[in-house]
Each structure stands twice: as structure tokens, then as C-alpha cells.
Design a protein that fits this description.
heterodimer; A: 254 residues; alpha+beta; Fumarate Reductase Iron-sulfur Protein, Chain B, domain 2; 7 strands; B: 224 residues; mainly alpha; 3 helical TM bundles of succinate and fumarate reductases; globular
Chain lengths: 254, 224
């Protein structure tokens, strides 16, 4: 920032404000002047919050942590899309150069019965944690790390497991899905372990438990629209969902 | 089978996929028999085919399974739709669905409802007559004259328009449904999925097109 090559934008921001999970919530409109195109979307929110604090108003609550696209904390449903208009980026990696001067930007929280609003744009995603806790682990004896290549893994399996493991659990898949389904997230977590030898012992039990927990949390059902894959900041593939369908069917008919 | 399978979100999708593929297989048979009208021989060949279908006990039994499959597909879809509505009680003020998915993949419920309405009208036009209220006599070969019913039905412009429009609904329903069924069953493969998708697109365009040709060509008098 401040390198001088950016230009400045005047924007209208329509932001969802909600006191807590129980209150109704509504949009609040803010005019922002002189927003640098070099800013990230979250930095634009920092500027707005500074302004609100100076005016003696309450700052807008939103989730963020690493701000480098790897932690999965940031959310925000921007102009009808999770993480905004760019593909393969999280909100923190979205920059204001993706917008034009005079734009109106509508910002909403992830909308899902399983992700209740905590406040404003921050939603409670602990449903994901409970799904992981139900089976997204391997029970192994701890101790010294094994020598490399002690367990042989085919390159293709390692690659696919790695791609699945790229999921940061941000919940954009749920936000994008017209049914608020969590299938992409859960399938990535099931896949990364189902593909590796370490995951075999609990393979069947894992998929049964994780899908049962997913359903219990109140996520919707997958209708294969592919919106999740298109909006996923980490490019998690629909192949994982097919794999989980296979895994659950096989585990149910054992 | 573990108890929870059919109640799980994935189990329900497997049922949708299996019944969907079963209904797709019915479309092939239906389209093949009906295409006999293209012989343009006053319906003699078609009536032979229709008569065989009407009197073969295996086909009759299949008809019951077909109705069961259809009802299961519809009921399961209703359950899934209601659950999905519940999963997002507060909707988005601004929703850009076109950015990440096709409109017809998001509109399977609407397309399916249109198809169900069409199907009821279609059954009243032909199936009810052939099974219950009776057909208008026999043709030159002594077969029941279902073809005559087609001629009368497709002489009405509103029927022809309704059938043609319904086939557009069918095409879009299949465009998503065909490949979606394989995905629900977990059949996703780097080599075969592109092939399934291409086959699905071809199927979704060709079958409804042939079906739509029938009322249109009969109305225009090309098929007499």
C-alpha cells in the first residue's frame, strides 16, 4: 500500500447488522470516500470501523485472523457470492481493485441454519468442529515421527489427499449452496483420510459418523449444482463429494 | 445395510439418482415405441407396438414398478426440498447464482413440478383411455387403435404447444439430472465422467426433441 500506483474509490456499502442470533437484523448503508484500490476488502472494513468508532458508533463485527488466505476465518457474502467476485480467493485476499468507483457493495453473513449469526457478519461455524470431532481424525500411537517413506503411498493418492486437505473449513461451500449443504467440506475431510493408509482402520466408521453429524447439524442436502466447487477459495473438487457418496454407500452395505 | 442409510442425506440422494436413472431408461423405451409413428403408415406399425406393450405381462408388471419409481422420485424430491428450505431460513438479499451454477441445476424442483403436471395431463390423454375408458375401435390389422387417439389429441393446438413446451422442461431436467445421478451414486471418474456428461447432454437434447416432433408433425399433417 501507499506505493502510489493505486487509485481511490468512492463506494456505497450496504452491510448486514444484527445484534445477536435472536434479533432480526437489517441492512445499514455507509458511504466511503477515498478507498485505495490497493486495500484488501478487510482493510476497507477496518477503515469503516475506525470511522464508526470515531463517530461513537458500534464497530461492525466480522471474522478474520491470518489475512493471508490460509486460516479460513474470514467469511462475508459479497454481492451475491461468498468471498466476493474473484475465484479461488478468500475475502482477505480480495482487493478493492476488483471494484469500480461508485459501486454499491452488499455484504451479508453466511446464511445457514447450521451457522447462526453471532453478531453482524460473524457466524458460528462450530458445527464444522463438531463434524471433525465426530470422526475426522486417525487414532494412532504417538511417539517419534516415522522415517520418511516408511509407509509407501502412491503418488496419485498422495496428490488427491493433499488437494482435499487444502480445505480451510471457511464454509464458503455452505454459503454458496442453494441448499446450504456442507457436502464439499465434509467430503474433503473424509477424502483426505480415506485416501491414505493411516486412515484405513477407521474408514467406514468415520464416514458414517461424520455424515450423521453433518445431517444432525441441519445442513441441507446436496443437489449437485456445483456452486460449492465454483466458489471454494481452495478449489476443492466435486470428486470428493462423489467419493464420500461411495464411501457412505459402501460403509452402509458392509 | 446400516439403518441410517436411507434416512441420511446421501442415502436420499442415492434414491433420487437410482429412480431418476430408472425413469430415464423408461424414456428410451417410450421414445422407441412412439417413434414407430414415423413409419407414416397410418399408425399400423405403431399400433402393433402399442398392442404388444399393452398385452405383455412383463411390461404390465414393469408399469407398476414404473409408477412406484415415479412416486418415490417425487416424494423424495419433496422431502429434500422441504429440508433444504429449512437449512436456510433467512435468504440472501443479493444472490448471484449465475456466477457459480446453471439456472436449471438450481430449478429441478420447478422443472419437476412442470413435468408432473404435464404427466398427469398426458396420462389422461392416453393411458387412462387405453387402460380404462377404452380406445376407438381397431385398425386394419385388428390392433387397438391408440394411433387414432394420438391423431385426435394432437389436432388441438393447445395440446401441441403444451407438449412441446413440456419437452423443453424435460430437456433441462435431464441436462442436470442425467449426470447428477451418476455423481450421487459416487460414479465420478477422471476418464468416464466427461463421457457421461457428453452422453447426458446428447440424451437430454435428442430424446425430448424426438418426443416434441411427434405432436408437432401430426398437427402439421406431415404424419397422417
Amino acid at each position: 500500500m501507499g506505493s502510489g500506483h493505486g487509485t481511490e474509490l468512492n463506494l456505497t456499502l450496504k452491510v448486514w447488522r444484527q445484534k445477536n442470533a435472536k434479533s432480526a437484523g437489517s441492512f445499514e448503508t455507509h458511504q466511503l470516500a477515498g478507498i485505495s484500490t490497493d486495500m484488501s476488502f478487510l482493510e476497507m472494513f477496518d477503515v469503516l470501523n475506525e470511522k464508526l468508532i470515531h463517530e461513537g458508533k458500534e464497530a461492525i463485527a466480522f471474522d478474520h485472523d491470518c489475512r493471508e488466505g490460509i486460516c479460513g476465518a474470514c467469511s462475508m457474502y459479497i454481492n451475491g457470492r461468498p468471498h466476493g467476485p474473484k475465484n479461488l480467493v478468500t475475502t482477505c485476499q480480495l482487493h478493492m481493485r476488483s471494484f469500480k468507483d461508485g459501486d454499491t457493495i452488499v455484504v451479508e453473513p453466511w446464511r445457514s441454519a447450521a451457522f447462526p449469526v453471532i453478531k453482524d457478519l460473524a457466524v458460528d461455524r462450530t458445527a464444522f468442529d463438531r463434524i471433525i470431532a465426530s470422526g475426522g481424525y486417525v487414532s494412532v500411537n504417538t511417539g517419534n515421527a516415522q522415517d520418511a517413506n516408511n509407509i509407501l503411498i502412491p503418488k496419485t493418492a498422495a496428490d488427491e489427499a493433499f488437494s482435499a486437505a487444502a480445505c480451510i473449513g471457511c464454509g464458503a461451500c455452505v454459503a454458496a449452496c442453494k441448499n446450504a449443504s456442507a457436502m464439499l467440506f465434509v467430503s474433503a475431510k473424509v477424502s483426505q483420510l480415506a485416501l491414505l493408509p493411516q486412515g484405513q482402520v477407521e474408514r467406514k466408521e468415520r464416514v458414517l459418523k461424520m455424515v450423521a453429524q453433518m445431517d444432525e447439524e441441519g445442513f441441507g442436502n446436496c443437489t449437485n449444482t456445483g456452486a460449492c466447487e465454483a466458489e471454494c477459495p481452495k478449489g476443492i473438487s466435486l470428486e470428493n463429494i462423489a467419493r464420500m457418496n461411495r464411501e457412505l454407500t459402501a460403509a452402509s452395505f458392509k | 445395510m446400516s439403518q441410517g442409510f436411507l434416512k441420511s442425506s446421501i442415502g436420499k440422494k442415492v434414491v433420487m439418482g437410482l429412480t431418476g436413472l430408472f425413469l430415464i431408461s423408461f424414456l428410451v423405451v417410450h421414445c422407441f415405441i412412439n417413434s414407430l409413428i414415423f413409419f407414416n403408415d397410418g399408425g399400423l406399425t405403431f399400433n402393433t407396438g402399442a398392442s404388444f406393450m399393452a398385452h405383455n405381462w412383463l411390461i404390465r408388471a414393469g408399469e407398476l414398478v414404473l409408477f412406484a419409481g415415479l412416486i418415490l422420485h417425487v416424494i423424495q424430491a419433496l422431502i429434500l426440498t422441504l429440508e433444504n428450505k429449512k437449512a436456510r431460513p433467512v435468504g440472501y438479499a443479493k444472490f448471484d447464482g449465475a456466477a457459480n451454477s446453471s439456472w436449471y441445476s438450481r430449478s429441478m424442483g420447478l422443472l419437476g413440478t412442470l413435468l408432473l403436471i404435464f404427466l398427469i395431463i398426458h396420462l389422461v390423454h392416453f393411458w387412462v383411455k387405453s387402460r380404462f375408458t377404452g380406445l376407438p375401435g381397431e385398425d386394419a390389422n385388428g390392433n387397438e387403435n391408440l394411433y387414432a387417439v394420438m391423431q385426435t389429441t394432437f389436432s388441438m393446438l393447445w395440446v401441441v404447444v403444451l407438449y412441446a413446451l413440456s419437452m423443453i422442461s424435460l430437456a433441462y431436467h435431464l441436462l442436470h439430472g442425467f449426470q447428477s445421478a451418476f455423481q450421487s451414486l459416487g460414479l465420478n471418474h477422471k476418464t468416464y465422467t466427461p463421457l457421461i456428461k457428453k452422453t447426458g447432454v446428447a440424451f437430454s437434447l435428442i430424446i425430448p426433441f424426438i418426443f416434441a416432433l411427434m405432436p408437432v408433425l401430426m398437427y402439421l399433417g406431415v404424419i397422417k
